[in-house]
Amino acid sequence: MPKTTQLTLTLESKPGVLAKICQALAGAGVNITAICAAETAGRGKIRMVVSDPARAKEALKAAKLRCGEETALQLTLDDRPGALARVAEKLAASKINIKCAYATTVGPGGTTTVVLSVANADKAAVVLGG
User: Fold this and answer.
1) Are 60 and 10 in contact (CB under 8 A)?
2) Labelling 7: which of 31, 51, 107, 115 has CA 20 to 30 A away?
3) Any residues with CB less than 8 A from the CB of 39 and at least 6 apart, and which?
4) % residues pLDDT > 70 (the chain)
């Protein structure tokens, strides 16, 4: 079960914030491979997986954007009904909470990449067979 480094940023929700993040990463040659951006009570919570977490953290720091990191799971699932349900059921049966999930798809019959931010990534990886 591949684990990945997920960068997290909590910033004011206002025009241009996501642009600033993306520009900083692009300027450092860092690709965003998965992203989840949500807003709650005027604050934006951004979680992302990038091609080079260390370089991304340096670029964000240089842009005066504070970020943290956490281990997340990055799964490749068949893009069909029930694939994510089976993963979520296994984690629930082991009392592992999913804090955040986001995914990309390639289209019907392909695969999807799912990023799961969980309470215990090591235990989750074992439960899911990794």
Assistant:
1) no
2) 107
3) 13, 45
4) 95
130: nearest Cα among 69, 84, 83, 87? 87
Identify the band that residue 23 occupies on the pLDDT scale cut at 50, 70 and 90: very high
Starting at the earlier edge strand, list the strands of the sheet with 43-50: 32-40, 43-50, 3-12, 68-78, 111-118, 98-105
**What DSSP designation does 81 have?**
T
pLDDT at 51: 94
Q: Cα–Cα distances in Å, from 31 out to 9, 18, 52, 55, 56?
A: 16, 14, 8, 10, 9
Question: Which pLDDT tens digit goes with each residue over 72-81?
Answer: 999 999 888 9
Distance of CA 53 to the CA centre of its chain: 12
